[in-house]
Amino acid sequence: MERVLDTAALLHWPQTKLTGGVCATSQRQELKRLSEGRLLLVEAMDLRWQDVPADWLARATATARETGDLPRLSDVDLDVLALALGLDADLVTDDYRLQNTYSHAGGTFTPVVNAASKAVWVWELRCTGCRDVTEVPEDVKRSKGQAASECRRCGSPMVVKRKRG
Ligand SMILES: [Zn+2]
Asked: Do residue 52 and residue 68 come from a single domain?
């Protein structure tokens, strides 16, 4: 299956994963605006830059209108969507509007940032008194919100909390 790459993928994916991918020619300008150095790098890779036929674009616009995502999609987004639809490709994007529209049309997508790593929660111990934060020891009670130990600084209860991003 061919793979259509959105601009975030062009920015963040390594060359090995980008090779052989398809991009809209309008993404060149967008990438240049975001990172000229990255554009130079990407242009040296083996990618296929493709103009979007008018009928593909019309189909993308109609699909995005159906799901209500159209007002929030940029021209470049629509080009990317149109390529994915026209080539029946896997769409590489983290944009949930593109994901939503493309899924609605029966397409498959791959996130740019690994979804599995995003879903891993990291926990820490936080003091309910002085707000001091420590790593969670291996043997600590995992029950969220309950006192797990005492603060080494002020003696208040420490609770297990999800670490802030
Ligand atoms: Zn404390």
From this structure: yes
* pTM of this structure: 0.69
Residue range 14-37: average pLDDT? Answer: 94
Please give the residue range of the domain that contains residue 20. 3-115
Give me ligand 1 centre to Cα 133, in Å.
8
Query: How remote is the CA of residue 122 from the centroid of ligand 1, in Å?
Result: 20
Rounded-to-integer distance, Cα 48 and Cα 109, Å: 18
DSSP string, 33-81: HH-HHHHHHHHTS--EEEPPPHHHHHHHHHHHHHHT-GGG--HHHHHHH
Query: Considering 79, 94, 115, which residue would you say is the last residue of a domain?
Result: 115
Within a 10 A sphere around the Cβ of 89, how many other Cβ atoms? 20
> Cα separations (Å) of 19 from 8, 36, 52, 129, 130?
15, 19, 20, 53, 51
Span from the CA of 70 to the centroid of ligand 1 (angstroms): 50
Distance CA 29, CA 20 (A): 20
Residues 60, 31 share a domain? yes
Identify the pLDDT of residue 158.
Answer: 87
For 13, the 3-state DSSP assignment is coil
